[in-house]
Amino acid sequence: MAKIKSIEYFRVLPRWLFVKVTDEQGNYGWGEATLEGHSQAVEGCLDAMVQRFVGYDADNIEHIWQTAHRHSFYRGGPVLMSALAGIDIALWDLLSRRLNLPIHVLLGGAVRHKVKVYSWIGGDRPRDVEAAAKERYAQGFRAVKMNATEDVDWLDSPRALETSVERCKIVKAVGLDVGLDFHGRLHKPMAKQLAKALEPHRPLFIEEPLLSEHYEGIKQLSGLTTIPIALGERLYSRWDVKRFLHDTSIDILQPDISHCGGISEIRRIANMAEAYDVALAPHCPLGPIALAACIQVAMCTPNFTIQEMGLTIHYNTEAGAYDIKNYIKDPSVWDVKEGYVRGLTGPGLGIEVDEEEVRKVAKTANAWPPKGFVGPDGSIREW
Questions:
Q1: CA distances to 217, 235, 301, 332 from 294, in Å
Q2: Distance from C-alpha of 138 to C-alpha of 74, rounded to nearest angstrom
Q3: Which of helix, strand or coil describes residue 189?
Q4: Which of 142, 153, 89, 150 is nearest to 116 (CA)?
Q5: How far, in Å, are 70, 91, 210 from residue 338 at the CA level?
Q6: Cβ atoms within 10 A of the Cβ of 140, count?
Q7: β-sheet bridge partners, residue 22
Q8: Can you give the pLDDT at residue 127?
Q9: Alpha carbon of 250 to those of 149, 247, 275, 276: distances in Å?
Q10: Among 161, 191, 301, 319, which is disulfide-ready with 186 (CB 3.0 to 4.6 Å)?
Q11: Dmax over Cα atoms in the chain, in whole Å?
């Protein structure tokens, strides 16, 4: 075993934060600690973790995870768990690259050889979805996700929901399954109405029909609709997840591997979910390192169902030319055929990071600012 020599992080466009861990023998691994809109906070946390973990044995991944989580006293939350995720993913990559094996082999071996995926259409204020849906179909996707609504007031006109139903019908007519992301934008009076209106049109799932802190409302809503309910991007550990599993209020769990403590924790979350007959569909509108880590988990997780991909998602195109096919040496790994990407079977994460491009872009990349909606009366609305 070799000790950790260095932990570096790189802020890159469009809104990602990569982590590289190198040991004293020159072995290295890459991780992703992206927390959209809060890069500086995660960078500060990583600075502290660098001071703590340089000199630790790089192979002792679980010990490092437990130390970071339990010796911080103030545990969990998006910032700490994202920083930890970046290091955890990098350590798994380092170890498995050194052993010349893909990560999923170290986690028990493959249960599938290809991975079902979906991508985004429509943007923050969804429109022109028919053309976007046809483009995704031509790219090889057979499922997409889009925001269900624009910003909506606590109690709004029912007319505000009519276009949501029409967009769902349009996309399904193209031949795609469609998940509707409520994005926590709706409050209970509107969420109940929209779920009922969508039900005859059978969306693949509805995501974050309410914000995750409203667990009692989500439980109530789950009893009012047959549409599968998905959430999890704003849950950061197995302790955050267990209330929803105990309540049997969700059907699909969507932890984000870069927000929930990395590969180590998402595997534990997946195992918990399987015991409650809940599927795993990780959230990942992020970079290629996070996506590769998700693919490794998908390949060895029985209750995995579908993987989000950020290919040309609106957040990327708004920022310029950088997308998930950047920063890696073989972008063809993200080619989609009949709704699937092939499994990643190379050492480690199964991708080769283009370190030269990472370092070049990191020299000038600014942090991506959080977004938000404001109503016509000047009041804050959920984004």
A1: 29, 16, 10, 17
A2: 48
A3: helix
A4: 142
A5: 44, 33, 32
A6: 15
A7: 6, 28
A8: 75
A9: 21, 8, 13, 10
A10: 191
A11: 63
Does residue 283 have an active-site annotation?
yes
Q: Is 183 a catalytic residue?
A: yes
Distance CA 78, CA 2 (A): 30
In tens, the pLDDT along 260-319 reads 999 999 999 999 999 999 999 999 999 999 999 999 999 999 999 999 999 989 888 887
| CB of 309 closer than 8 Å to CB of 288 | no
Helical ranges in the chain per DSSP H: 39-53, 61-70, 78-98, 103-106, 129-139, 162-174, 188-198, 215-222, 238-247, 263-275, 288-299, 314-319, 355-362
In angstroms, the Cα distances linking 162 to 153, 165, 281 are 15, 6, 28
Q: If DSSP codes are grouped into helix, strand and coil, which group holds residue 205? A: strand
Catalytic residue among 38, 104, 259, 283: 283
Residues constituting the chain: 383
pLDDT greater than 90 at residue 177: yes
Q: Does position 123 have pLDDT exceeding 80, yes or no?
A: no
Tokens encoding 185: 């934008």
Q: Annotated catalytic residue: which of 38, 104, 183, 187?
A: 183
Q: From CA 153, how far away is CA 316, in angstroms rounded? A: 28
- Give the SS3 label for residue 284: coil
* Closest C-alpha among 147, 146, 90 to residue 119: 146
In this structure, what token pair is assigned to residue 113?
């050889």
**Predicted model pTM:** 0.97
